[in-house]
Protein: F-box/LRR-repeat protein At3g48880
Organism: Anthurium amnicola
Amino acid sequence: MAPEGKRPRWEDLNRDLLVSVFARLGVEDLIGGVSLACTAWCDAARDPRCWKDLDFRRWQPISRRLRCRREPPVDFLDLLDFAIGRARGAVDSVRFPDFADELDLLYVAERCPILHYFSLANDDIPMDQFCKAIDKLEFLEGMAVNESLISVEVLQHIKRSCAYFSELEVFAECVDERMGTVICEALPHLRKLKLNDCFLSQQVISLLLDKLKDLEYFDISGYNTPGITGVVLEKASRLKEFRWDSKFDEGEFDYCSGCEEDIFFQNPCECMLDKQITEWLALHS
């Protein structure tokens, strides 16, 4: 608190308030920004609470801001080590850059035993090493991973090892009925599911809504999700939140009930062509 009659200064802000604000910043701002402003801000930025949620997904701007000069995996590991040290191991979530691998995940699992969430987009993660890391994450509640890790073995291992697991995001080009069935059977008590920017048939959407009885949040928004029918919306009405915006709903795509295929208007299926010809003939007869 500034003395009476004097203009308040930023460095006079309550430390807990500063920590609350700084906890919303990225690692690049904590290291290369606020910590250089003044002694009070530097002290607040050192608080472990500022380092509980670590997001490295935008690695290029982070590395430029911090003037990283070496190979990305090397600089990333040093920065990760520094951030975990500042958090004193009490990290809640880590969102890895796209080049991070199973060794990075295992490193975090060994040093952050109370980790609740991670995002790892790499599509070349060995399942055995992934499961080895999962073994160390007893309190894991959610993850975002590539479709290559969506298998019965991996998901059942998560179910056995992580009693609190309830949130899944999958990075995939297509979620077919097989993958949908695997998710439903291995993780039947999911509460939050995200399948963004991938192909999903109406059958798979219905399957997930029917089988995941505890689901509360379902996000299938993306550029190539087929139009949502009234039946799907009725099934999704029990959810707290359902996100499904797509180009289908903006008129770029449509769904053909004749051959049960999703189609481009610019490149219609045979059913659509037959329909268009029939309509033209009827109009000009």
Remarks:
- The first strand starts at residue 53 and ends at 55.
- The two ends are 86 Å apart (CA to CA).
